[in-house]
From TrEMBL:
Keywords: Coiled coil, Metal-binding, Zinc, Zinc-finger. SMART domains: PHD (SM00249). This is Zinc finger PHD-type domain-containing protein. One of its GO terms (molecular function) is zinc ion binding. Gene3D superfamilies: Zinc/RING finger domain, C3HC4 (zinc finger) (3.30.40.10). Residues 289-332 are annotated as: Disordered. Transmembrane segments: none annotated. The lineage of its organism: Eukaryota, Metazoa, Ecdysozoa, Arthropoda, Hexapoda.
Amino acid sequence: MVCGKCQLNTSNAKEVAKCSLCSVEFHATCCRIRTVAKLLKMSAKALTTWRCDECDVDGASSTNSDDPIIMDLLKNIKQEMLDSRKSNSASFASLEKTMTSVRDSLEEVKLKLSTVEKDNLTLKEDCGLLKKENQRLAENVSQLKTEIDELQQRSRLNNIEIRGVPVTKGEDIYAVVESIAKAIGVVFNRGGISIAHRLPAPRDRRFHPSIVVQFISRSIRGEWLIAARKNRIETTDLAPSLQRAPVFISEHLTAHNKSILGRAKAFVKFGKLAYAWSREGRIMVRKTADSPAERVSSFEDIERAAASPSPSQNTRSTQGIRCETTPAGSPE
């Protein structure tokens, strides 16, 4: 027999498909089967019911030859889709689990952050309270220091401090004080003195240790201070053999008051204040020669007192700088 399409011999039955209606044979390559391989894969039932293109006018058997292959392809595709779906489902499940974990972690972080914010707010409040408490304590400490300094100064109200007198070998401190009394013109009365002694030597060896004299009454001390202010003395007034140098007699001030007086005198030296002196342990200043006396107890007080216009040149006298005592006649 010959092929119904190419009219060539169809002797090889394995390469030929026979229409179940018209019994015409076709090479596999001449019909819609297309290849011998597809023909060989067709089942016996598919071969016996196969129709050629002309007989298969309603398309009822259009898939007769292709159905097994297409079905296999569809089956494979379906399987791949199922496998892919399973894989995707597993991936989505894993992703969803991860997202859930991330969401839980974020919620935990938010909770912790909220806790930290609350703690931070509490710490800020505590810090504010501590600052206020620290400020209060600092003010209390400052007040206590002031009170202690005032008590120390009050305990020195009967004292004078003598500076600039050299130490001599085997000296009798009361004899030295007697020579000072004679030099400034006051009557020396040993019974009017409670005690007299040298202070420890200062670190700067250029300065001699001061002498502190404590009198039995403030009135005696006042006499000495008035006389000392009227009669400036030098070491040679005490002993001609001593090297000439000024001797200063002043109130016995605490270390704090000494620093305040020293700063105030520096302001006098530079013309920012007219006068600076001590009176009964209090540090006093005048802004100008005509301004009222003002007490200062801190560096800030001095700055404030000097904030007014500078005094004229004639107020920058050595009297303003060297005023050590508070007798009548001091610039107050």
